[in-house]
Structure prediction request, 218 residues.
Amino acid sequence: IDSVQLDPGTYYIVVDGYDGATGNYKLAIGTLPEIIGSSIALDDSYLEIYFSESMYTNANGEGALEISDFDITFSQNSGTASGVSIEYLANISGGPLLGGEDSVRFYISVEGQSTGLESVSIRSLSNASIFNSLGIGLLRSYERTQFLSDQYPPTILSILPQNNATEVPTNSNLIIEFSEPIQNNEEQAITDENVTNSIILKNNATDENLTFFITTDD
Prediction:
């Protein structure tokens, strides 16, 4: 029973075979398992999916997850990579899955070089493909989308004054245009407060670092 809020009280569940059919059944009561996070290697060699609890390929709480348990969709999103294929599954240490893992590593192969715009969406193949220890299936609605890493370094498109320019007034502004938004090595925007950790201006005649401040729109 998914997404149903019940008021406090006593409830009865009636199990009845269709058209008089009889046989064994199993009733599992518990919270629905979910996909709660994901991450990807900087070189796009693998991505990891994190579940809310230990997961199995069989409803009896046994068996390691398999590639065939998942529905995997690649979206190019105006990027340059053209596709992704799943090579094999492993635990987050790179070892074989045994069943009951709450984190799974998908080793992938990317066709082309990614720009960070491309994405991979992962969900269970059906509502009865992946199970927790109670046999409750991971719903297909719990989909996780992970963007690929950016494999293209930024480049400098233009500098004003131009490189090797002479007789430039000392009060001139230096304007640098990059090919894309940039950040420092702590994944923070470069600001006037932290710019000297990323960029220096030097007097080549004296080897002296020059003081400066920056303004930026991006």
